[in-house]
């Protein structure tokens, strides 16, 4: 079955045929691992890579986004300057176009949402034709704002410290900026909905290793109202709302659910498997982001198998409520990569 439909069934507790599992290989991996080793792993794990076809021998690594090109600074459509030291690893914003409020509405203006997604220039008409072709073939697609659409976008524009001072000081220009940014993002949400997306995503990192990047009271004052406005059209359309955040977001999840989130994509060990199970099992669909810091990087294949088994046992129900995703980055031993793929495929069928 189409992975998008599986995720929707899991989100609605409609007994999916298996637990939806996804495995994402970051573009940087293709120059850190032997190419043939990764291709073989993909070829031998059809549940994780259902549309995979082994490429020709001359195949080269995937396209690397402009914001992830080593030693090639990229200024995005918002005027934010991205820098990275490794091809494929999304950079860090070091130039903030609104570090001084004097630029607001003078030298700096929001771009046109009809020509961009907020990070790159976009040919929306071409995308709409592609979506129409999918619909004609009975295929589905998921809509999503760019990663870092609101809080992180504000941080990139102003700088993280400046932004928090603005919030604590009650800077009136911040309210004006948030209003304009929300309208920009809403235009993109509405475009996806108008073209028949099966779900809508709102990816944005809010957590650190311990606790959130923004105090809950400031999140409720400045960010939550924007989230509620952005999520309402998708909620009214009756499609699942997916929210991704890295880090410890335990003190924010009630506000995220209250805003309309139906599928919460959060990290396992940072937030705690038992806490996630107690808070969400049987209530809200968890799209579990599998550990990339400890066990998969430094553990044994047996420990990896035990981790996935524990997570599926504690979080899944026959009715649904669990999806899982792993993002592979350089440094994980290949034997651990295989063990993880094996375990994800094995335990995806636990209720089948």
Describe the overall structure:
The mean pLDDT is 96. The protein has 13 helices and ten strands. The strands form two sheets. A seven-stranded parallel sheet has the order 1-10-9-8-7-6-5. A three-stranded antiparallel sheet has the order 2-3-4, with no helix packed on it. The protein is globular and about 55 Å long. With 352 residues, it is α/β, with parallel strands linked by helices. It has helices at residues 3-11, 35-43, 124-136, 151-158, 160-169, 172-194, 216-237, 253-259, 268-271, 273-280, 295-298, 301-315, 334-347, and strands spanning 21-25, 74-75, 81-83, 92-95, 143-144, 200-201, 241-244, 263-265, 285-289, 322-328.
List keywords for this structure.
352 residues; alpha/beta; 7-stranded parallel β-sheet; 10 strands; globular
Short description:
This protein is an alpha/beta fold and 352 residues long.
Write the layout of secondary structure elements.
Elements: H1 3-11, E1 21-25, H2 35-43, E2 74-75, E3 81-83, E4 92-95, H3 124-136, E5 143-144, H4 151-158, H5 160-169, H6 172-194, E6 200-201, H7 216-237, E7 241-244, H8 253-259, E8 263-265, H9 268-271, H10 273-280, E9 285-289, H11 295-298, H12 301-315, E10 322-328, H13 334-347
Parallel strand pairs: 1-10, 5-6, 6-7, 7-8, 8-9, 9-10
Antiparallel strand pairs: 2-3, 3-4
């Amino acid at each position: 079955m189409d992975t998008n439909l599986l995720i929707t069934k899991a989100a609605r507790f409609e007994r999916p045929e298996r637990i939806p599992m996804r495995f994402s290989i970051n573009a940087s991996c293709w120059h850190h691992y032997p190419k043939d080793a990764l291709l073989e792993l993909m070829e031998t794990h059809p549940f994780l890579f259902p549309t995979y076809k082994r490429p020709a021998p001359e195949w080269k690594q995937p396209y690397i986004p402009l914001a992830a090109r080593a030693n090639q600074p990229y200024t995005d459509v918002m005027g934010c300057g991205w820098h990275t030291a490794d091809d494929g690893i999304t950079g860090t914003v070091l130039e903030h176009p609104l570090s001084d409020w004097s630029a607001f509405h003078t030298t700096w203006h929001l771009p046109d949402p009809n020509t961009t997604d907020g990070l790159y220039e976009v040919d929306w008409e071409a995308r709409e034709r592609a979506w129409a072709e999918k619909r004609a073939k009975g295929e589905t697609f998921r809509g999503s704002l760019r990663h870092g659409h609101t809080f992180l976008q504000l941080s990139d524009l102003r700088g993280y410290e400046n932004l928090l001072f603005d919030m604590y000081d009650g800077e009136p220009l911040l309210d004006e900026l948030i209003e304009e940014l929300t309208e920009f993002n809403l235009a993109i949400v509405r475009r996806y909905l108008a073209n028949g997306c099966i779900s809508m995503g709102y990816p944005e990192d809010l957590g650190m290793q311990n606790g959130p990047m923004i105090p809950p009271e400031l999140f409720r004052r400045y960010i939550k109202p924007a989230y509620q406005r952005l999520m309402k059209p998708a909620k009214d359309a009756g499609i699942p709302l997916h929210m991704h955040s890295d880090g410890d977001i335990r003190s924010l999840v009630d506000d995220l659910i209250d805003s309309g989130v139906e599928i919460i994509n959060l990290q396992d060990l940072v937030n705690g498997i038992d806490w996630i199970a107690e808070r969400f099992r049987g209530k809200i669909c968890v799209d579990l982001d599998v550990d990339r810091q400890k066990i998969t990087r430094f553990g044994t294949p047996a420990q990896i198998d035990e981790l996935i088994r524990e997570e599926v046992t504690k979080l899944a129900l026959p009715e649904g409520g669990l999806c899982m995703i792993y993002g592979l980055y350089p440094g994980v031993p290949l034997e651990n990569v295989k063990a993880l793929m094996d375990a994800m495929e094995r335990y995806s069928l636990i209720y089948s």
